[in-house]
Amino acid sequence: MICGKLWSTMQQQLRHFRVTVIGAAGGIGQPLSLLMKNNKLVTELVLHDVANVAGVAADLSHVATKVHVKSYTGASQMNDAVKCADLVIITAGVARKPGMTREQLFEVNANVVSGAIKAIAEHASYALIAIVTNPVNAIVPMAAEFLKKEDLFDPRRLFGVTTLDLVRAETFLGDFMNVDPRKVSVPVIGGHAGDTILPIISQCKPKFNDDQECREALVKRIQMGGDEVVKAKEGKGSATLSMAFASARFANALLLGLKGRKAPIECAYVYSDVTEVSYFATPLSFGPRGIEKNHGLPPLDDYEQAGLEKALKGLQQSIENGINFAQCH
Ligand SMILES: NC(=O)c1ccc[n+]([C@@H]2O[C@H](COP(=O)([O-])OP(=O)(O)OC[C@H]3O[C@@H](n4cnc5c(N)ncnc54)[C@H](O)[C@@H]3O)[C@@H](O)[C@H]2O)c1
Ligand SMILES: O=C(O)C[C@H](O)C(=O)O
Q: Which residues are noted in the entry as substrate-binding (predicted)?
C-alpha cells in the first residue's frame, strides 16, 4: 500500500506543465518562448499574441526538444490560450521609447493585461501568473484587483517579474568585483522603476568592499539599467534578450516549486505585508502552490534604509493608480 503522502509526492514528480506566453510574437516573447521550449519541466508551450504568432510557433516546433508547441492569435483566442495553464507569463504590451517613463505605459498596458487576467480568471484560475509588462509597480496591483472582483485572488500565485534587476545587479557587481556574475548573490527588493529598485549591496555575496562612492554609482546603474538599454536601442524598444533570460530563470524557479523540487530563492513583486505598502519585492521561496515563504526584508544599513523610505513613497502612488484603474473598469 502506498501511503497518501508518498502518493501525492509521486503524482507531483510526474506532473507535466503547460506554460502560456502572452505577447509571444514580441521582443521578449520570442526569445522567452525559445528558452521555455528548451526547459525540461515544460511539456506544452502555448503562444498567444494579437499579431501573427503561428510563424513563431512553427519555427519553435522544429527545435529538437520534447515540448509540444501550440499557438493562438487575437483576443477571440485568448481563452483557449490560457485554458488549463499551470503558468501564464504576460509579456504583452507596449515598451518604452527614449524620454518616456514606465508609468507612461500604464493606460495602454493596463487594458492589454486586464484582458489576459479576465481570461485567466475564467479559464485557468489555478495558474501562476507572472507579469512582465510595465509598469510592473502598478500593473500587478491592478491585476490583483481584477482577480479579487472574481473572488479568485490568491497572493501566492501573482508575481511582478523583477528578476532583470537581480540579473543586472549580479552582472554589474560581478564585473566590478571581477567575479563571475553567476557566483554573485544580491537581493534586489522594492519595485521595478528607478528609485523603487533597491539593490541591497550590504548583503552581497561575495562581500562588496569598495567605498560608498562606488556603491552609489552601482546602485544608480542598476536602478537605471532599463534606461541604458532604451537609450542604446534609439527608439526600437527596451530590454528584450536580457529580460527573456531573466523571465525564463524566474519561470524555472516557479516550475521547480510546482513540481515540489527545491527551487532557488528569487525576489519578485508580490502582495506583501513586509512594509507599509501592499505590494513589494522581497526574496521568496516557491512550492506547489506558488509562494511558500516570503523571507521579508534583508538586513539594511542606514543608506539602504534611506533608500527604502524613498521607494515606499513611489510605490504607494503606483499601487494606488493600479487599484483605481481596476475599480473604474
Ligand atoms: N519586467 C521587466 O523587467 C521588463 C523588462 C523589459 C520589458 N518589460 C515590458 O515588457 C513589455 C513587452 O516588451 P517587448 O519589448 O516584448 O514589447 P514588444 O512590442 O516587442 O512585444 C509586445 C508584444 O505584445 C503583443 N500584444 C500587444 N497587445 C496584446 C494583447 N492584447 N494580447 C496579446 N498580445 C498583445 C504585441 O503584438 C507584441 O508582439 C513592455 O511593457 C515592456 O516595458 C518589462
Ligand atoms: O526599461 C524598460 O522600460 C524595460 C524594463 O523595465 C527594463 O528594466 O529594462
A: 96, 102, 134, 168
Residue reference for cell 509597480: 137
Which of 50, 89, 233 best tests ligand 1's pocket when mutated (most atoms within 8 Å of CB)?
A: 50
**Would you put residue 91 in left (φ > 0), alpha (ψ -120 to 50) or beta?**
alpha
Give catalytic residue positions.
192
For 4-161, the fitting CATH number among 3.40.50.720, 1.20.120.520, 3.30.470.30, 3.20.20.80 is 3.40.50.720
The atom number, within ligand 1, closest to the CA of 160 reads 1
What ipTM was reported for this prediction? 0.99
Sign of the CA dihedral with 165 first, then 167, 172, and 173 last: positive
Distance of CA 49 from the midpoint of ligand 1 (Å): 10
User: Where in the chain are all domains bearing CATH 3.90.110.10?
Assistant: 163-321
Strand 17-22, strand 68-73: pairing: unpaired
One digit per residue, pLDDT tens: the chain, 329 residues? 456 666 666 566 667 899 999 999 999 999 999 999 999 999 999 999 999 999 999 999 999 999 999 999 999 999 999 999 999 999 999 999 999 999 999 999 999 999 999 999 999 999 999 999 999 999 999 999 999 999 999 999 999 999 999 999 999 999 999 999 999 999 999 999 999 999 999 999 999 999 999 999 999 999 999 999 999 999 999 999 999 999 999 999 999 999 999 999 999 999 999 999 999 999 999 999 999 999 999 999 999 999 999 999 999 999 999 999 999 98
For the whole prediction, is pTM greater than 0.95? yes
> Which atom of ligand 2 lies closest to the CA of 134?
6
Spacing, Cα 92 to ligand 1 middle (Å): 4
Q: Which fold has domain 163-321?
A: L-2-Hydroxyisocaproate Dehydrogenase; Chain A, domain 2 (3.90.110)
